[in-house]
Amino acid sequence: VCQLTQKNRSSMCMDVRRGQKSEIQAISGAVAQAAAQMGLEAPYNTALTRLLAALDAHQGQRSTIFQPSAC
């Protein structure tokens, strides 16, 4: 499986590379929100959501903020 999919690229990483809004809120943000509704914490999902939301807020400046080379 690893060999067959080694050239695949994450859709979220490709969004970031293209300067498009990521789907982080729908994925990781939903996990953090569901956890909060159950009285639980999801610190990694919350942090990831906040980090990528900051990138989304600076779409035109991505080239100077973040250049993912591994996607």
Task: Report the uncertain regions.
Answer: none
**Biggest sheet architecture:** none
Which word captures the global form? Answer: flat
**Nearest-angstrom radius of gyration?**
14 Å
First CA to last CA: what distance? 18 Å
- How many helices? 5
Determine the structural class based on helices, strands and strand pairing.
mainly alpha
**Percentage of residues in DSSP E strands:** under 5%
Helix content: 55-70%
Write the layout of secondary structure elements.
Elements: H1 2-5, H2 11-18, H3 24-37, H4 43-57, H5 62-65
Describe this entry's structure for a reader:
With 71 residues, the protein is mainly α. The protein is 63% helix and 0% strand. It has five helices and no strands. The model has no long low-confidence stretch (mean pLDDT 82).
Quick recap:
By secondary structure, the protein is mainly alpha-helical. 63% of the residues lie in helices and 0% in strands.
Which features would summarize this protein structure in a list?
mainly alpha, 71 residues
